[in-house]
Amino acid sequence: KAGVTQTPRYLIKTRGQQVTLSCSPISGHRSVSWYQQTPGQGLQFLFEYFSETQRNKGNFPGRFSGRQFSNSRSEMNVSTLELGDSALYLCASSLSTLGSYNEQFFGPGTRLTVL
Amino acid sequence: SQQGEEDPQALSIQEGENATMNCSYKTSINNLQWYRQNSGRGLVHLILIRSNEREKHSGRLRVTLDTSKKSSSLLITASRAADTASYFCATVLYGAMDSNYQLIWGAGTKLIIKP
């Protein structure tokens, strides 16, 4: 089975722009979670989707949004980029209907640099 | 604030030795998960221990959980160079409603195995 894939792997944007990141979960996984990882703040939960519905949300501003499609693929969008949004964005999928409550499988991440 | 905090922040040992890292958390948990992250394989789930379990084994890994002390430890026996990675504990933090939860991560322990 193919693992979790994320595209693009690297991205460079400038302040004020917006960006869309994509995640394809493992086949059969309906839960997709997104995380931001930075050296200063570590791993932080952004949101989780299950069957096209946002089920949980972390403490991030409304500039961060996401969605999930009927095939479980997910996208996250960050609008009005700030320098502090530079980070590794990780997507994880889970077979469990409880999502991040149980074992998650992570993609390689998208490295976003905001200049 | 982080739910889980690992100790030590960094650990350097000789190949073949055992490595122990600890995780403390603040609120009651349902389960605690350990993950490993290295540049080659990304973030990988290692083991999940439920709140009613005290110890769990997986190959060279041994995890213990002490809910009275709100702490967990991960022991890696007979370490190998390939164990060089950052190790994170993660716990589920509930929101105002039981259906709202998120995975909270510690800052990680950076483990270096010297040949």
Describe this structure in words.
The complex is a heterodimer of chains A (115) and B (115). With 115 residues, chain A is mostly beta strands. Chain A contains no helices and eleven strands. Chain A has strands at residues 5-7, 10-13, 19-24, 31-38, 42-50, 53-57, 64-68, 74-78, 87-94, 105-106, 110-114. In chain A, a hairpin with a 3-residue loop joins strand 4 and strand 5 (42-50). Chain A starts with a strand and ends with a strand. In chain B, strand 4 and strand 5 (42-50) form a beta hairpin. The mean pLDDT of chain B is 89. Chain B has strands at residues 4-7, 10-14, 19-25, 31-38, 42-50, 55-58, 61-66, 71-76, 85-94, 101-105, 109-114. Chain B is built from no helices and eleven strands. The interface between A and B is medium-sized, with 23 and 23 residues.
Radius of gyration of chain A: 13 Å
The backbone outline of chain A, from C-alpha atoms, is: globular
Percent of residues in helices of chain A comes to under 10%
> What is the overall number of helices of chain A?
0
Mean pLDDT of chain B, nearest integer?
89
The description of the largest β-sheet of chain B is: 6 strands, mixed
Q: Can you tell me the residue ranges of chain A where pLDDT is under 50 for at least 5 consecutive residues?
A: none
Q: Rg of chain B from C-alpha positions?
A: 14 Å
Largest interface: A-B, 23 and 23 residues
Mean pLDDT of chain A: 92
Taken as a percent bin, the fraction of beta residues of chain B is over 45%
Counting DSSP H or I runs of 4 or more residues, the number of helices of chain B is 0
The end-to-end distance of chain A, rounded to whole angstroms, is 37 Å
Helix content of chain B: under 10%
The helix/strand class of chain A is mainly beta
Give the SSE string of chain A.
Answer: EEEEEEEEEEE
The first-to-last residue Cα distance of chain B is: 36 Å
Number of strands of chain B: 11
